[in-house]
Amino acid sequence: MAATADAVLAELRERVSAAHRTRQALRLRGCGTKDFYGESLAGEVLDLRAHQGIVDYEPSELVITARCGTPLSEIEAALAAHGQFLAFEPPAFGADPSIGGVIAAGLSGPRRAYAGAARDFVLGTRLLTANGELLRFGGQVMKNVAGFDVSRLLCGSLGILGVITEISLKVLPRPRAEQSLRLELPAAAAVESFNRWSALGVPISGAAWWQGSAWVRLSGAPPAVRAARERIGGEAIDAASAQTWWDALRHCQLPLFDSRVIWRVSVPGAAPPLGLPAAPLIDWGGALRWYADPAEGADVRAMACAAGGTALCWRGAAPAGRFHPLPPVLARLHRRLKERFDPHGIFNPGRLLAGL
Amino acid sequence: MAEADIVAALRAFLPGDCVLSREEERRPYECDALTAFRQLPGVVVLPRTEQQLQQVLLTCSRLKVPVVARGAGTGLSGGSTPHARGVLLSCARMNRILEIDAHARIARLEPGVPNLRVSEAAAAHGLYYAPDPSSQVACSIGGNVAENSGGVHCLKYGLTVHNVLGVRGYTMEGEPLELGGRAPDGPGLDLLALAIGSEGLLMIVAEVTVKLIARPPCAQLVMASFADVHSAGNAVAAVIAGGIIPAALEMMDRKATAAVEPFAHAGYDLSAAAILLIEADGTPEEVADQVREIEQVLRSAGASTLRVSGSEAERLRWWSGRKNAFPAAGRLSPDYYCMDGTIPRRHVGEVLQAIERMEARYALRCMNVFHAGDGNLHPVILFDANDHDSWERAERFGAEILELCVQLGGTITGEHGVGVEKLNSMCVQFSPAERAAFAAVKEAFDPAGLLNPGKVIPTLARCAEYGRMRVHHGALAHADLPRF
Description:
Number of helices of chain A: 11
Strand order of the largest sheet of chain B: 15-12-14-13-17-18-16
Shape of chain A: globular
CATH topology of the largest domain in chain A: Uridine Diphospho-n-acetylenolpyruvylglucosamine Reductase, domain 3
Helix content of chain B: 25-40%
Distance between the termini of chain B: 39 Å
Radius of gyration of chain A: 21 Å
Structural class of chain B: alpha+beta
Shape of chain B: globular
CATH architecture of the largest domain in chain A: 2-Layer Sandwich
Number of domains of chain B: 4
Radius of gyration of chain B: 23 Å
CATH class of the largest domain in chain B: Alpha Beta
Structural class of chain A: alpha+beta
Largest interface: A-B, 87 and 100 residues
Oligomer: heterodimer
Number of domains of chain A: 2
Strand content of chain A: 15-25%
């Protein structure tokens, strides 16, 4: 198995080095479940699925290390066998993604606001650079401040700096108890309540609002979950129905995601309603708001800005790019980093930022 | 450029008391808490406002003068060791808490605000700022951002990088820059993650927005004794494997407990080879549950005695010993050298035994206090700085511990940073290509190389020289390690 992995890696290095020499653009691809995500797809596909397998998993270390092509399902199954999980709840779109794709996209699910984002769980990476060098950043330990935190920089980089060939992630034990509650509340009151409960230390691990209902998931020690349930009230949801709801939210499978145009708006968690006519789907305790088919002429981006946030055009024709535009000083830093890591611009050109 | 010209350029816009140019005024800034490295700065500036700070950078950028930022000077790796011809930029006077929003659970701070003051200010709302480095009464939030500081509670609550939502500041060229913010997961690369822990090499931070969390209503500490360090190490793994994430999980060896007990009177078991301090926090019911589980695991892991804090006073007393481990080292020896390697938890016992063998070889004593839950070791090597040979042995002893950490899949620094202290060890942990990648990041942010030059990233020549030196001393610890 190790010899095979080494051979696959050697072949990847060769392909990347050749592309660097000939200035051939490469489109890094795992399972292709996030082809829809990013500004544009360009270049010859570099399929990374063959570089797969869990390299190391020691439950008492709370760390798993896997090659980039490892299916998410394989990692989640290995963790589940020891009562552990990826606390950032990475979304999967339709099919099983690769862990490399999960980290390159850096997207997180409902627990993000409470347990942390994908980048918060990245401990180390191996990076295949444009000139075929294999670099190692971070490691398999919880604390590591040797050099810049390049591993976390790679999380969400959409492959523009190089191929993430291996990833070490912090994992957590599954909470002892979980209970989901549903309360009938208007959106503004729901967001206000989510924030108020968090300030009181209620052990929330998910807080969402959709079509008049606030959904709250409590996680932790059984007595803490019991106490919080009494404090919050609402209707207790049975485990199976709760799982269905949170999974649908995590993997973007609610009916809203059938819409033609979808905006993903990130705002400060306590921000009031944005003032768009359509009601949003709210996640992350108020910090993530999804809008479907906004009225003609509605400037979602301007409204997100006014609320102190940013808007990503998830689906539909994107005015001036899918991602929220970067301020000039940040765009310049992106260009300089890209030029130094990938001088010929072979990796995923234009995927994270137009012209980069 | 002559020093007098730099001083004149700075005095042109800074009030008189914000520029320190006389030698006796600059002297207190010649080192941080790693006193072995000293350098008198060319000039010290203490801006009071963000505009002044920006003006300092614009001026230094124009005059091509190096800038070294300094918070409270509590750093342990010489990260704010001054530059002889540079400006030492102290953020100590930019120390206002700009905003506490209890509902949104955030605080907006100037960089000079001491870490503990954030939690004190948030206490009225039942909130606090989680990262708690031992130096928290003094260390500043700007310094915490620079070092990605940890503390005893980061196993459960994370490091600085997990608790800072955004920073606002300036590039070396004086250009305003905002990374992250209150809205999560903004567009583009995660430059905030790069800035945190960048040891003042990438930007100067003028404002930090941190996350506040609800203070757990109750906390209890379990203290367990073990007859040998190996069983203590295994007990640590057993707690984690048991699905428990305690609020803190610390270990002290016998040398450490013996050092602190005479003046901290913490009540430690001095007959134990090692003790573990394990904290549970949450609601009273939750804490009672977790303490029961912890006791059970520790008993099966071979703890010889187990005690649970019966009162808040007792809990704090037990902690006081741990938090005073470094001052205690100062009572045992004229000088001490604190290392900061991190290893996978399963190697704890092995590393402690290896350190014991090194003590004999280097003829120096070493006590061990240690964030066991994170695998973050703090071996404290006792030496005498007046005896040059003793300091040289201490340095080599420390370097060998760090090499062992790297060999076991760990790192040379878990929370104290590289600074100037661990430049040589960076040569061991990273290949030339990896170090070139760090240099590339540095160049992207600071093309002129004026921000904290000479720190964190060793030059090729230095690493080559260090490689030769180690072979020369005949003390090459792990001859089988691949070299470059």
